[in-house]
Amino acid sequence: MEGPTDDPRIVADRVRQRRNFMATLLLSQGVPMLLGGDERGRTQRGNNNAYCQANEISWYDWSADPEADRFAEFTRHVVALHREHPTLRRRSFFDGSGDPPDIAWYDAAGQPMTAARWGDPDNHFIAYLLAGDGSDFPDEDLLVVLNADVAPAAFVVPGAPGQRFTLLLHTGQDDGRPPVGGQFEAGARLDGPPRTVLVAAAPR
Q1: Euclidean distance between CA atoms 153 and 63, whole angstroms
Q2: CA 153/CA 197 separation, integer angstroms
Q3: Count of alpha carbons within 13 Å of 181, Cβ hemisphere only?
Q4: Where are the domains of the chain?
Q5: 33-64 pLDDT, tens digit each
Q6: Which residues are 144's β-sheet partners?
Q7: How far is Cα 158 from Cα 142, in angstroms, rounded to an integer?
Q8: pTM exceeds cut of 0.90
């Protein structure tokens, strides 16, 4: 479905995907590039040349909008997460060094990704673990789980035996803050909600 719609299911899916894309941007290495208004869901109606549009396409809408306010609050939460964890702000490229490696990619079974899994068109799940001691400053290990499927994904939490993670981000929530009690250990079997990004931290 493209264009304006009043279908509540489609609207809800779009808002959730907006949170997923904002989270993906802020969890990526490098300098996050946000355009003014992104934090309120400003779209420019898909126009990437709005500099020459002196009309409502390029105008900012500052009118009261609860949905825009909720997304701005979500963006604040993800930006704070980015600032609080040096692991997300490395100054050098990943090279797979260290024990555990600076970054490791996992499938839903908690096993390292294989070439076959990378190339599987039916696979919509991936997780990666960032080693906190591989960053420029000491940090916790960070686990990022991405389920792009429209269905929940059962997955096994990777990590060192006994390592206990605390959930920091849940894009299924309007403000991104996870439900109370979001803790789990490496090796646990969990359900990843559909179309959701999760971020959890664990001390080494």
Answers
A1: 39
A2: 12
A3: 0
A4: 8-87, 91-202
A5: 998 899 999 888 888 888 888 999 988 888 88
A6: 128, 199
A7: 11
A8: yes
